[in-house]
Structure formats: C-alpha cells, structure tokens
Design brief:
single chain; disordered C terminus; mainly alpha; about 0% strand
Length: about 90
Amino acid sequence: MSETPNELAEEFPDFVALMRHLQQIDGHFAHLCRRYEDLNRKVFKANTSSEPADANLLMDMCKKRMRLKDEIYGMLVQPEPEAEAIKLAV
C-alpha cells in the first residue's frame, strides 16, 4: 500500500478488481484514474508541506479530486452493457 492516503484502492476497496479490469479495457476510465492519482499526490504533498500550496489552490485541487472520485465511482456502480444484454436475453 502507498504512503499517500486516499488512493483509489483505499477509497473503493470493494471495487479493486473491477478498477483493474476497467483500466485495461476502458481508456477513459484509465485516464480518470491517472488524473485522480496524480492530483491526489499533489494534494498530499501540499498538505504535508513537502510542496506547500496556496490555500485557494489547495481547495481547488481538493474539489477537482472529489469530482474525479465521484465520476470514477459512478462508472464503478453503473451496470455494464454486456451484463444488461445478457439479462434481457434470458
């Protein structure tokens, strides 16, 4: 586990396998995860003063991180089209 808090695997432990799968098959999902992890590291550095940031910049980064996390979560809980097609066929 990383020393950086709020990593996606820590935030969504029940979805770790699905996150890995989606990162391999969905370029948009993988891009969102990379953006979240990059921003999360920047927020951590700013909070620990290893790279101090202005309060407004830190707040903006936290808001962006939350929006990314919300979008990622939405993609994790939405039904997959293939699964829905199988349900309809049965």
